[in-house]
Amino acid sequence: MSKFLWGVGTGSFQVEGSWRKDGKGSSIWDHFIHSEFRAANSTDASSDSYTLLDKDLSALDFLGVTFYQFSISWSRLFPTGVVAAPNEKGLQYYNTLIDSLLYRNIDPVVTLYHWDLPLMLQEKYGGWKNESVIDIFNDYATFCFQTFGDRVKYWITIHNPYLVAWHGYGTGIHAPGEKGKIATVYSVGHNLIKAHAKVWHNYKTHFQPYQKGMMSIVLGSHWIEPNKSEDALDIAKCQESMDRVLGWFAKPIHGDGDYPEELKSEFSFLPRFTENEKNYIKGTADFFAFSFGPNNFKPPNTLPKMGQNLSLNLREVLNWIKLEYNSPRILIAENGWFTDSHVKTDDTTAIYMMKNFINKVLQAIKYDKIDVFGYTAWSLLDGFEWQHAYNIRRGLFYVDFKSEKKERIPKSSALHYKQIIQENGFFPRESTPSLQAQFSCDFSWGITESVLKVSVKYWENCWRQNDQQLYCVNK
C-alpha cells in the first residue's frame, strides 16, 4: 500500500461557475438549467472555482492528496466546440491549475468530457446522436494532449457514459434533456464508445510514446444481490442487470470489443460493431476507472420486483470486475455520498459512508488480491449536483453559495479523510479510549415498536456489509 494514491475530484460544470465570463461558450448544461430546468434555483451561485482557484488549492493542501481529478470545460477552451484558436483566458486557467498542482506535488488527473458538451454541437449536429461529433471530440482531445500532455500523466476520456446516454437522451433529467426512444439511447452509447476508442488510439500513437501517460474512461455502476442466494433465476437477473449497466460499456472496452450477449439478444435495434471495430475498441484502457456512488443506484423499491436487492458493498462489485475483466488495475475514480442542503460542516452520514466504502476497498486489496491502486473521494467541495441542483451537497468542504467570499470550510468528512491519507488507511487507534463498565442491575432497557423495525434492518445491513469489522454477539 506504500504507493497507493489518495485523491479527490470535481466536475468543471459543477464548480467553476463564470459560465459567461472571459469568452466562455455555452454548454448544453448552461442552456438546460437556464431554460428548462426549474429545480435549479440560483443556478449561477456555484462555488466559483474559476475565479477562486487559490481557495481550491488551499483545500487540496489541507487534505494532503496525491492527485486531483478535474475536468476541462470544452466550451471554455473552444466556445463553439470546434477547434480553432483557443480562448486565451480559458487556456490560462487550466495551465495555471495544472502548474499549481505540480508545484504542490499533486498529480493532475484530467477528464476531457464530464457532460458539458458545447451547445453549438448540440444545436448543429444533435450532440452525441451524430457520429460527426466523434471527430470533433478527437480534435479537441488532440489539442489538450498537445497543450497539457507534457504535464499530465493520467487522462480520462469520458465520465460515466451510461448517465450521459441514459439520462441525457432517455429520461431527459440530464442535459440536453431529450426524452428519446430507447434506440436513441443505445445509439448515443455506441458513439460514446467509438469516441473514447478513437481518442485512446490517437493518444497511444502520437503522444504516449514520449509523454508516458495513461488513459481510461470512468464507468459507473450499481451493485445488487439476489433475493435468494440459492435461486439461479435471481442470480441470473442480477448478472443481467450488471451487464445492462456496467457491462454495456465495460465489455466492449475491457472485454472482447462487443456488447454483452444479453443486450444483443434482447434489443434488435442495438447498433452492431464490425469485426474491425471490435478489434479497434477492445483493450482501449490502461486501467479500469470505476465510479460507485449515489448517481449509479436505481430507486430501491424497484429492485425486489426483479429478484434483486440494492447493495452498497463496494468489495463485492470489485470482485465482480476482477472476475469479469481479467483482474484489471482499478482506480476508484469517483466515490462518496451526500448530505442534505441544510447540513453545513457536521456531515456524519458522509463519514460513515466513507469509512464503509474505504474499508471495503482495503478488504478487496488485502483479502481478495484485487489490484486497486487509487481512491478518489467525491467531491472536493460543494457544487451543482446535476438533477438535484443545490438540494444536496457532496463536498468535503462546505461552501456558502450566497456569501461573497465563498470560503472553503472543511467538513467533518474532510478532517476524517485527511487523517486517512496521513495514515495511508485507517489510523490504528481511535482518539477516544474505549470505556469498559456495566450499568446498575436495575437499569431498564427498551425500544419503541416504530424504531425496532428500522433498527433491526439497519443492523442487519451493518453486519452484512461490515463482515470483517462488526460482529453480532447474540444472533
UniProtKB/TrEMBL annotation:
Give coiled-coil spans as residue ranges: none
Q: Give the highest taxon in the source lineage.
A: Eukaryota
Q: Which InterPro entries match?
A: GH (IPR017853), GH_1_N_CS (IPR033132), Glyco_hydro_1 (IPR001360)
According to its UniProt entry, the protein's GO biological process terms are:
carbohydrate metabolic process
**Family annotation (Pfam families):** Glyco_hydro_1
Which terms does the record give in the GO molecular function aspect? hydrolase activity, hydrolyzing O-glycosyl compounds
Sequence similarity: Belongs to the glycosyl hydrolase 1 family.
- Any idea what this protein is called? Uncharacterized protein
